[in-house]
Specification:
This protein is mainly α. About 80% of the residues lie in helices and about 0% in strands.
């Protein structure tokens, strides 16, 4: 669980920097945004479903 959180945290930092400094965002920034959103969604769903058991 901890490695997943570290990966999500790093992706979050990249996404945040792209929002705060759009001129410095790398050309692959939209792909990182999409990966971050999907990975976060999957992690949150997994966490919610696991707690209900």
């Amino acid at each position: 669980m901890k490695p997943i959180l570290i990966i999500l945290l790093l992706l979050n930092i990249v996404v945040l920097l792209g929002q705060l400094w759009p001129d410095g965002a790398p050309p692959f920034a939209p792909i990182v945004n999409i990966i971050f959103l999907i990975a976060s969604l999957l992690f949150f769903l997994y966490s919610l479903l696991r707690q209900k058991r």
